[in-house]
Amino acid sequence: SMTKEVKMFLGVVAVVIVFAGIGFLLLKQQNATLPQVSSDKSEALTRSTQNIRGKLDSAIKVIEFADTQCPACAAVNPLMDELFKQYGDRVSFTFRHFPLPMHKNAYAGADATEAAGEQGKFWEMLAKVYETQPIWAETSDPAPTYQKLAEELGLNLEQFNKSYTGKINRKRIDQDKA
């Protein structure tokens, strides 16, 4: 019989697949144009990134596509952390951005995680961004919230702010989405 962990893992995978499917349908419905990237999609899945943890050379790779403003993604994040704690010595976990068009601050949340990632705190910022989602999700300017989170994580604020508004991170986010 399946262990509790395997059932939980399969449950998380199912949830992630369902929400990815919903996101895909919403994008199709809106006829959204995706950024152009190489026709070889494997590059987008395997490109080097700071958003990877666990046993990096593992044959088992979990690649999660999520939106920082998505409540369901926020709800799944503690489960993903639990999976990492249990399987991180055997499995690699990669995060890819998938900001949905109906979430006005999804790109800003992704920008904040990438900016923190440049200082080695991607996963910590992702957790904080999800935890504070109700505070920043509908604000006209979520930046002050992210700056406060960056401070809590002990990041260099000047560097964080520069990265947060930078084009390099946005290019990575668009690459993930594409």
Quickly list its features.
178 residues; mainly alpha; 3 strands; single chain; globular; 3-stranded mixed sheet
The count of strands amounts to 3
Q: Strands across the major sheet, in which order?
A: 1-3-2
State Rg.
16 Å
The stretches of 5 or more residues where confidence is low (pLDDT under 50) are none
Order of SSEs:
HHEEHEHHHHHH
Major sheet size, sense and barrel closure: 3 strands, mixed
The helicity comes to 55-70%
Q: How far from one another are the termini?
A: 39 Å
Average pLDDT confidence is 84
Tell me the number of helical segments per DSSP (H or I, 4 or more residues long): 9
Beta-strand percent range: 5-15%
Derived structural class: mainly alpha
Shape: globular
What does the secondary structure layout of this molecule look like, with pairings?
Blueprint: H1 4-29, H2 41-46, E1 52-54, E2 61-66, H3 71-87, E3 92-97, H4 106-117, H5 122-131, H6 133-136, H7 143-152, H8 157-164, H9 167-177
Helix pairs in contact: 1-3, 4-5, 4-8
Describe the protein.
The chain has about 180 residues and is mainly α. It has 9 helices and 3 strands; from the N terminus they run H-H-E-E-H-E-H-H-H-H-H-H. The protein has helices spanning about 5-30, 40-45, 70-85, 105-115, 120-130, 135, 145-150, 155-165, 165-175; strands at about 50-55, 60-65, 90-95. It has a 3-stranded mixed β-sheet, sandwiched between helices. Helix 1 packs antiparallel against helix 3. It is globular, with a radius of gyration of 16 Å. It starts with a helix and ends with a helix. The mean pLDDT is about 85.
